[in-house]
Design brief:
The protein is α/β, with parallel strands linked by helices. The protein contains 17 helices and 15 strands. The protein starts with a strand and ends with a helix.
Length: 506
């Protein structure tokens, strides 16, 4: 454990997050917002390979349950393939799932393989992948090297061999380039050399892909972040009969376009009011997270607002009492719409609006719109006139106006994690899963009191700490924060990157 950086409000600590949390007092923190590993062995990163994701999450959930106040919240980013294990771990230690937010974006990149090309690669579909897997394993064991050592020696420390060519083989054979790397390393014979060589395919066109700073590739990107390298991709026609039959089919999986954010709550002590008065936490700050509306929409809503907006009636003859008995309009909420459990990036917002079209809010025109409340109104208030907003409030726009949009000024998508611009990440930030500040600030404001204490136990390049400092500086918050990050190596200097980013705003 090492203290990397400290401000008047928070501290950045390098080390094992379980061990560090053991030194934090019980019921000390109001919230935790963290982007956990997804346990997908993403880009061969060791931090995304926990071994047993449920147990990994449970160890951290146990400590978080102890240090979070009653009623406090924990917001964890997850992946659709693995977040069910994380949810089970948190529920098993006592947390309750109170919400799940979908962060939806348009810049994910599909990672499927082409079935037709796989068949051509096997000279028309030879079903010998398992045979070759055993063949490779035999020569590896004869050489006396482990799988991880082979990955390190031949594939620069990635999990390419262990994931695809021996342990988790899904029917794919090594590429010709990889095959001869393995042959040189393991010194096996020529038995399968010809099989590995790809079948001839007729080339019909080609296109360029550009390499970004984080090692990912994208098509037709010409910004400064995509100038680390270029490669040419050939478009070819299927060659073998099986390849022609299965042309257009891919390995399983769709284009990634969302990340679930699960919101857990430590159970309240007694009830909301008792818990909030005693622990100063437990509620969600909805007003701080409302979706902004235009002045035009506010004017339209105010002009066409409902009369007598209530369904809570007295026992009097009229069934309407107090302020609601007045001929009074319900004004538009000046600070915006109630936040939804879907968050869009600006790209998806534009797509949604293009598909929904620009619409005008509409509503009922029948009995329920008569006399403001239709048959629910009695006595002197009952009438046959349509309410002021029959047919809707009349505000206009695309469907995206109902949702929060993460809209960065100079938005540039990354191949794998299109959530923050290069400008926002900062010079030299090599972390590959940086979340946008706007989203992290929104989550902090939703679940953390303005003078609360919040933690990120997988801090990465420090977006959580940076967001806390900016909220303190710009929005009159008085947050105290803790960031914990394990890695600060030469290749992955995430603590140093976080320190550099936070220093710039303090």
């Amino acid at each position: 454990m090492e203290l990397i950086y400290k401000t008047d409000n928070g501290k950045l600590i390098q080390g094992d997050n379980v061990e560090i949390m053991e030194n934090i007092k019980n019921d000390e923190l109001d919230s935790c917002i963290s982007d956990f590993p997804y346990d997908l062995k993403f880009m061969g990163k060791k931090w995304d390979n926990t071994g047993d994701f449920y147990e990994w999450c449970k160890k951290r959930a146990i400590q978080l349950y102890r240090i979070i106040k009653p009623g406090g919240y924990v917001c964890i980013f997850g992946h659709p393939k693995t977040n069910h294990r994380m949810k089970c771990a948190f529920e098993d230690v006592g947390f309750q799932i109170v919400e799940e937010i979908d962060y939806i974006y348009g810049t994910g990149f599909p990672k499927n393989q082409d079935i037709g090309k796989l068949f051509d690669k096997r000279k028309g579909g030879s079903l010998i992948a398992d045979e070759i897997m055993k063949y490779l394993k035999k020569y590896r064991e004869f050489k006396g090297v482990s799988i991880s050592q082979l990955d390190k020696d031949v594939f620069n420390g990635t999990t390419k061999y262990s994931r695809w060519y021996e342990e988790r083989n899904d029917g794919r054979l090594p590429s010709e380039e990889d095959w001869f790397k393995l042959k040189e390393y393991l010194n096996f014979d020529n038995t399968y050399d010809e099989l590995i060589k790809q079948a001839e395919r007729e080339k019909i066109s080609e296109y360029k892909q550009h390499r970004s700073d984080d090692g990912s590739w994208a098509t037709d990107k010409k910004g400064s972040m995509y100038k680390s390298g270029t490669k040419t991709i050939e478009v070819t026609l299927p060659s073998s009969e099986l390849s022609k039959k299965w042309n257009g089919w891919k390995t399983s999986g769709l284009k990634p376009a969302h990340e679930p954010i699960t919101i857990f709550q430590k159970p309240l002590e007694k009830n909301y009011c008792y818990n909030i008065e005693k622990h100063n936490c437990g509620a969600m700050n909805i007003d701080a997270c409302r979706i902004p509306t235009s002045q035009e929409d506010k004017d339209i809503i105010n002009a066409k607002a409902s009369k007598n907006p209530t369904t809570n009636y007295s026992d009097s003859e009229t069934k309407i009492y107090g302020a609601y008995a007045e001929d009074k309009s319900m004004p538009a909420n000046e600070i915006g719409r109630f936040p939804a459990n879907i968050i869009l990036d600006s790209f998806i917002g534009e797509i949604l609006d293009s598909q929904s079209g620009i619409s005008k809010s509409t509503g009922g025109k029948g009995d329920k719109s008569k006399g403001a409340l239709g048959d629910s109104v009695y006595g002197k208030y009952k009438n046959e006139e349509l309410s002021a907003n029959a047919g809707g409030l009349g505000d206009t726009g695309g469907a995206s106006r109902y949702f929060l949009k993460i809209n960065d000024e100079d938005f540039v998508p990354f191949l794998y994690c299109p959530k923050a611009t290069k400008k926002e990440k900062g010079e030299g930030n090599t972390h590959v899963t940086v979340k946008p500040k706007q989203l992290i600030k929104w989550l902090i404001k939703l679940v953390t009191p303005k003078d609360g204490k919040t933690i990120d136990i997988t801090a990465g390049s420090g977006t959580h700490g940076l967001s806390c400092e900016e909220l303190n500086r710009d929005e009159e918050y008085n947050l105290k924060w803790i960031n914990i990050e394990l890695l600060n190596t030469e290749k992955e200097p995430y603590c140093d990157i976080a320190k550099s980013r936070i220093e710039k705003v303090v």
